[in-house]
Design brief:
By secondary structure, the chain is an all-alpha fold. 45% of the residues lie in helices and 0% in strands. It has 7 helices and no strands.
């Protein structure tokens, strides 16, 4: 959910993003604590749409036979990155580096298709129905800024949206 807020702020500017959200919120039945519950709710016809990560739309919607469709905003979208890191001073650094290299290789990235994740390696296979990075209008999402401003923006969202 915060990724959506941070994306809107980076696309529109903070005040315009909050004004937009205030108008949008008039049409939102409720906010879920689960980021993917809206997929099932949309599939069951309980809500008109849901905002979720693409892999959740496929796994929890399309693959379960719900009449849902994966789309992305033409204006652009932010994103989150599942990360890997080396631990400074950690044991087996050479093996850890080999693991990271493997996971970034075509073979390692091909594993992502099992979970409908979007691979970083452009040579990796993408399962039918899953999103391809090249087909998505990604904004220049500043994750450092998003992290530094998270508490403040969430507090403002709670104060202004109140849910």
């Amino acid at each position: 959910s915060y990724t959506v807020l941070a994306t809107l702020v980076q696309l529109m500017g903070e005040d315009k993003a909050f004004a937009y959200w205030a108008e949008l919120s008039k049409n939102i039945h409720h906010y879920n604590s689960s980021g993917s519950a809206c997929v099932t709710q949309a599939g069951l016809g309980e809500v008109a749409l849901g905002i979720a990560f693409s892999h959740d739309v496929i796994v929890k919607g399309v693959d379960k036979g719900y009449p849902v469709k994966l789309t992305f905003p033409k204006e652009g979208t932010g994103y989150e990155i599942g990360a890997m890191a080396l631990v400074k001073g950690g044991q087996e650094l050479d093996l850890a580096k080999k693991f990271i290299d493997y996971m970034l290789s075509k073979k390692g990235q091909d594993l992502m298709k099992n979970w409908f994740r979007i691979p970083l390696n452009p040579e990796a296979e993408v399962v039918e129905g899953a999103a391809k990075a090249a087909d998505i209008n990604l904004i220049n999402f500043n994750e450092v800024w998003a992290g530094q401003n998270k508490e403040r923006l969430i507090e403002r969202w709670r104060d202004q949206v109140g849910q």
